[in-house]
Amino acid sequence: MNIIREINRELAIAGQITLAQLQQVADEGYKCVVNLRLADETGWLANERKKTELLGLYYVNFPTECEDINHQSTLQMYQTITELPKPILIHCDNSIRSAAIVFLYIALKQGIDFEKALQKVISLGLISRV
C-alpha cells in the first residue's frame, strides 16, 4: 500500500491512494479522507468520493496547489479539519502538500503565528515562494 505516515492520533498523510486501498484505510479506523488534489491532475481518481462514502467514511476534496497556500486558505483548511471526525487521512499525489497542510494545521493549533509557520514549511522544502 502507498505509505501512510501517521503524524499523530488525529492525522495521517499519504500520496495518492487507490480505490482498493480505501478498504484498508477504513479497516485501520480512519473516519475521513481529505483529498487535496485538483480534478485535472494526472492520476485523479474520479470514483474516490463514491468509494470512500460507500465505506462509511467522510470525504472532502479541498483542491490545493502549493503556490496557493496562504493565510486564508490555511484558515479554511484548519476550520475544515477541526470539524471533521478523526482520525483523518489527508492525501495528495506525493504527500508533500499533505505534509505542508498538516504542519500548518498543527502550528496554528499550537498558537504559532501563520507567517512563522509558513516560513518553516518553506525552509523544510515542502513549498516554495518566489
Return the CATH topology: Protein-Tyrosine Phosphatase, Chain A
Cα end-to-end separation: 35 Å
**Total domains:** 1
The main pleated sheet reads as: 5 strands, mixed
Task: Please tag this protein with its features.
5 strands, 130 residues, 5 helices, Protein-Tyrosine Phosphatase, Chain A, alpha/beta, 39% helix, five-stranded mixed sheet, globular
Topology:
Layout: E1 5-6, E2 11-14, H1 21-27, E3 32-35, H2 48-54, E4 58-61, H3 71-83, E5 88-91, H4 96-109, H5 114-123
Parallel strand pairs: 2-5, 3-4, 3-5
Antiparallel strand pairs: 1-2
Helix pairs in contact: 3-4, 4-5
Structure commentary:
Strands 1-2-5-3-4 form a five-stranded mixed sheet, sandwiched between helices. Helix 3 (71-83) packs across helix 4 (96-109) and helix 4 runs antiparallel to helix 5. It is 39% helix and 14% strand. The chain has a single domain (5-123), classed as Protein tyrosine phosphatase superfamily (Protein-Tyrosine Phosphatase, Chain A, Alpha-Beta Complex), CATH 3.90.190.10. Helix 2 links the parallel strand 3 and strand 4 (58-61). The protein is α/β, with parallel strands linked by helices.
